[in-house]
Write a structure and sequence with these properties.
single chain, alpha+beta, five-stranded mixed beta sheet, Ubiquitin-like (UB roll), two-stranded antiparallel ribbon
Length: about 230
C-alpha cells in the first residue's frame, strides 16, 4: 500500500513498511549506516543512522515508514548526534588508517569523511586487544572491530547453518570470537565475502588480504553518499 511521509520537509510517496533508511536513499537523502545492509535483516547495533522520527530520535534502519510520518535527517542536532556516534566508534578501537589493509575500502573511514569528522571530541581509549590467528584461513584483527555484528548474523556454515562468528563476554570485555573448526571449512569465496562484509578491517584472508592495491580511495572516486542514494553527485 502506498503511503505519504515527509523527510526534511519534502513530501515522499513510498510503500508502507519499507525501512526509512531505504526510502531516504531512494529519494536522494543520505543517511550513514555501518551495520545495516539493504535486503538483510536490520541489526540496529551501530545507531549511526539515527534520525528524528515524529520528534523522537530513532535508528532509521529499524523504522518502517507509516502514513503521515515526519522524519528529520539533516537538522543540526541530529547530524551532530550521528557525527558523535561515529567519533565514539573511532575512539573505542585502534583505527590506524594508514597501516590498515582496508584503508580506502573501509565504511567507517568513508562515513567519517562524509560527516566531516576531523578529530574526535572524546578521549581515545586505546583498548588492549588480542588478534586471533588460530584459523587456517582468517586473521581476526580485533583492534578494528566496531561490534556491528554483521559477521555474527550473516556469516554461517553452509552445511549446518551454524554461526561462524560470535560475541564472547559482555560490556568492556566483549569481543568477537571465531569457531575455528567451522572457519577452516569455509570455501575461499566465502572468506572473501566475510572480509568484504566487514565494514572495517577486522576480518582478513590469511596470506592475501585484499588482492588489489588500494590506489585511489573508493570514496574519493565516488562519494559513499552518492553510492547509497544512486545520485550522480550533481
Amino acid at each position: 500500500m502506498k503511503i505519504t511521509l515527509t523527510i526534511d520537509g519534502k513530501s515522499i510517496t513510498a510503500e508502507e513498511n519499507q525501512m526509512l533508511v531505504d526510502v531516504a536513499a531512494d529519494n536522494d537523502v543520505y543517511i550513514p549506516t555501518l551495520c545495516y545492509q539493504r535486503g538483510k535483516p536490520c541489526l540496529g547495533t551501530c545507531r549511526v543512522c539515527t534520525c528524528k522520527v515524529n520528534g523522537n530520535n530513532a535508528a532509521s534502519c529499524t523504522v518502517p515508514v507509516t502514513d503521515g510520518m515526519v522524519a528529520e535527517v539533516n537538522e543540526p542536532e541530529t547530524r551532530d548526534i550521528r557525527k558523535a556516534l561515529i567519533e565514539m566508534l573511532f575512539v573505542e578501537g585502534k583505527h590506524n588508517c594508514p597501516s590498515c589493509e582496508k584503508s580506502g575500502r573501509c565504511d567507517l573511514q568513508a562515513v567519517g569523511y562524509e560527516t566531516g569528522m576531523m578529530v574526535s571530541r572524546f578521549p581515545y581509549r586505546f583498548p588492549v586487544t588480542q588478534a586471533d590467528f588460530q584459523s587456517k584461513k582468517i586473521w581476526l584483527e580485533r583492534d578494528r572491530c566496531i561490534f556491528c555484528q554483521r559477521c555474527v548474523e550473516f556469516v554461517r556454515d553452509r552445511e549446518s547453518g551454524q554461526k561462524i562468528f560470535n560475541i564472547h563476554g559482555r560490556g568492556a570485555d566483549a569481543r568477537i570470537d571465531i569457531d575455528i573448526m567451522l572457519a577452516d571449512k569455509m570455501p575461499d569465496e566465502q572468506v572473501v565475502e566475510a572480509m568484504e562484509l566487514c565494514p572495517v578491517g577486522c576480518i582478513l584472508k590469511k596470506g592475501v588480504g585484499f588482492d588489489a592495491p588500494i590506489g585511489r580511495r573508493k570514496f574519493e572516486i565516488a562519494s559513499v553518499r552518492d553510492r547509497v542514494t544512486g545520485s550522480d553527485g550533481k
